[in-house]
Design a protein that fits this description.
Length: 237
């Protein structure tokens, strides 16, 4: 198995612990999708993908519909996606994806987290090049007989890894291929269970258990921030 498989296996152990926080984050994704492409999932592929993820997270249908209706209100603030880069103690690169309606608040909170945990908030471009931006899909196994055959069929989409998982068949590809892959699966009646984007470190750094604790203090503090959607790092798990 490749980097994506190992990366996903490590992250599965660190799923969002609080269901309420999961729903809050998905709610932000719904707002951004609706503001960008409208409230109809049939004509808004981004919203369609978010709804699939909401269902995969067991978000009640009423919550999804309520979030779409709220997002359609012109008075509902939109969220801006902002990337933050920096270093944790012991030279571990940190990449943060945030969704915020108040950038000043988010910058202040992120900077405070880095400062209090002996990290350094960097400038734009300081660590992003250390991570590959990928898209991923988890699809139903129902209409898939052979993984190698599927991988060959997806070669034109620059698919990097295809592997079997208890949740379904998981496909990783470059970020830019998301829309094309979504269309392919829909046109070939392959059910998409969930999808998303991840940033996989190109290299990882091994640390001692004591150093790992130092890094985890910062990671946990960042993950607790309501504006933070995803936290990526280069520490070897």
């Amino acid at each position: 198995m490749g980097r994506a498989f190992e990366f996903r296996k490590a992250r599965k152990m660190k799923r969002w612990s609080a269901m309420a926080k999961t729903f809050t984050r998905i709610g932000k994704d719904i707002v951004m999708a609706v503001k960008e492409g409208g409230p109809n999932p049939d004509t808004n592929s981004r919203l369609r993908a978010v709804i699939q993820n909401a269902k995969a997270a067991n978000m009640p249908k009423d919550n999804i519909e309520r979030a779409i209706k709220k997002a359609s209100d012109k008075d509902t603030a939109n969220y801006k996606e902002v990337l933050f880069e920096g270093y944790a103690p012991h030279g571990i690169a940190i990449l943060l994806e945030t969704a915020t309606d108040n950038n000043n608040r988010t910058v202040a909170n992120v900077r405070a987290a880095f400062n209090k945990c002996d990290g350094n908030l960097g400038t734009s471009g300081s660590v992003v090049f250390m991570f590959d931006h990928t898209c991923n899909f988890t699809v139903s196994k129902e209409n898939i007989d052979d993984l190698e055959e599927l991988e060959l069929e997806l070669i034109d989409f620059e698919v990097e890894e295809v592997f079997d998982d208890e949740e379904g068949v998981i496909i990783y590809a470059p970020f830019e291929q998301f829309g094309s892959l979504q269309t392919y699966f829909e046109e070939n009646n392959i059910e998409i269970l969930s999808s998303g984007f991840e940033r996989i470190p190109t290299t990882t750094t091994k640390v001692t258990e004591a150093q790992k604790e130092d890094v985890n203090k910062l990671l946990e503090r960042l993950e607790e921030d309501d504006d933070v959607q995803n936290v990526y790092h280069s520490m070897e798990e």
